[in-house]
Amino acid sequence: MSDQLRLWVVLIEPRTPGNIGTAARAIKNFGLSGLVLVDPPTAATAGEARAFAGQAREDVLPAAETASLDAVVDRFHTIGTTATLPVRGDDHVRTPATTPTALCDSLASTVGDVAVVFGRERDGLTNAELALMDEVCTIPADPTYPVLNLGQAVTVMAYALRPLLADAPHARGPPTPLADPAATQQLYTYLQQLVELVEPKEHKRAKTGRMLRRIFGRAHLTAGEVATLTGVIRRSIAAVRD
Amino acid sequence: MSDQLRLWVVLIEPRTPGNIGTAARAIKNFGLSGLVLVDPPTAATAGEARAFAGQAREDVLPAAETASLDAVVDRFHTIGTTATLPVRGDDHVRTPATTPTALCDSLASTVGDVAVVFGRERDGLTNAELALMDEVCTIPADPTYPVLNLGQAVTVMAYALRPLLADAPHARGPPTPLADPAATQQLYTYLQQLVELVEPKEHKRAKTGRMLRRIFGRAHLTAGEVATLTGVIRRSIAAVRD
Asked: A89-107, pLDDT tens digit by residue?
């Protein structure tokens, strides 16, 4: 158990080593904890990545971990980033989108491991990936061209969330530890089971499950809350099946 | 005379065209007015600069102006940026250094042309250049490695000062109307009914109900979320009672 909030950067299928290096530099510049790569290119932390990393070539870049997205979701409270504005029929994949400023408020007293997750240079995160995130964040930008370069997006998020770090000067309330992400994932599985049991319209079930995940994601559940909620949902499932 | 604030980026003796392109992209991403180059390299807006500029290669980059520092100082309210902490005998060259957040407050009612001025990749702004600036700003960063890459520094300043722009309605994120409180109260009533049905320990029921209310309370539910949640809970109650 931890008594502070740690921020990590996760890059999914980055293709440009320069962006990986830029991300590593931003992590070091703003005092984040580390870099996790999902399906990185070969030599992801060599060559051009080192050239862009500055002094982070000595620590953050060589320490970058490789992991699956499932492992990321089990280990971190995840914040997916997207430049795409919500569209009609979005079905809770991108909505409601929060902002870095709002995250600084809502996570102000949270402790634990939080990952900011970025998608591919060209396409960002897929809808399936976004659906796995606990929260979705959009960087406020000009509507005529809101798509940031990947390295720039990481830099902005690292800057904007730095006030959350324990060594950054700020005022905060008593710490609230996040629940174990794996336990939260288990809760989501039970919630989906309950929805399957009670929602007669099959086409609504996935959408409702995503909505529930978003609601609980932005509530930043504690371990005790996850345990109690899991108990209520499991008993409801058992009672429905009786 | 103008009735709004416009933000410009000035780069003094930039040497890496990629950084010039990154600056142009940040200017377009965050809706700033334009780019001014002082003593740029040859072909400053071609080749690699275009590759890094994204869609800004079509407008911001080719429209970049070249000017002397004296001309910049005569035309703009200037904010010099520096990562360097004040040193003894600094004689007010770097002090007092403001921050982007403080600038957003102090410039909130300002209109006119404001330039954020960045120095060389390796050395930043000289003391003589800093002495010409109206204000000096430092980006809050980790003291062990506060030196940002030039393109990243421009991106952070563009993001951080965007709330000053009159046409930035998204600075606080899209407005999210809260659900009708009466509908939310009705949801809480159903939640309590479900807890009564499935929680065997009577003394836990009220406490669990309060916990659920707090979780949903801090999630700031929308009308659609309340409607969907209410449907799931009502159907669960009906299924349990069957």
From this structure: 556 666 667 899 999 998 9
Please state, in angstroms and rounded to a whole number, the distance separating the CA atoms of residues A99 and B157: 17
- Closest listed residue to residue B28, CA positions, set A152, A94, A13: A152
Residues 6+ apart with CB under 8 A from B174: A97
**Residue B210's closest chain A neighbor by CA?**
A225
Q: How do residues A192-241 score in pLDDT, each as one tens digit?
A: 999 999 999 999 999 999 899 888 988 888 899 999 999 999 999 999 98
Q: Tell whether A151 lies on the interface with B, counting CB pairs under 8 A.
A: yes
pTM above 0.95, yes or no: no
CB pairs under 8 A between A and B: 166
Q: Which residues of A touch B221 (CB under 8 A)?
A: 215
Question: To 5 degrees, how large is the angle CA B145–CA B150–CA B155?
Answer: 100
Task: Establish if B196 touches chain A: CB-CB under 8 angstroms.
Answer: no
ipTM for the complex?
A: 0.83
Q: A43 touching B, CB under 8 A?
A: no
* Strand ranges in chain B using DSSP code E only, listed in sequence order: 5-12, 34-38, 65-66, 77-81, 97-98, 112-118, 135-137
Residues A119-123: contacts with CB under 8 Å, at least 24 apart? A119/A12, A119/A13, A119/A80, A119/A81, A119/A82, A120/A12, A120/A13, A120/A14, A120/A15, A121/A14, A121/A15, A121/A16, A121/A19, A121/A149, A121/A150, A122/A15
Residues A5-164, CATH architecture: 3-Layer(aba) Sandwich (3.40)
Q: CB distance from A239 to chain B under 8 Å?
A: yes
Domain boundaries, chain A: 5-164, 179-241
> Using the beta-carbon criterion (under 8 Å), do A235 and B198 form an inter-chain contact?
yes
Do residue A141 and residue B171 have CB atoms under 8 angstroms apart? no
Q: Is the CB of residue B206 less than 8 Å away from at least one CB of chain A?
A: no
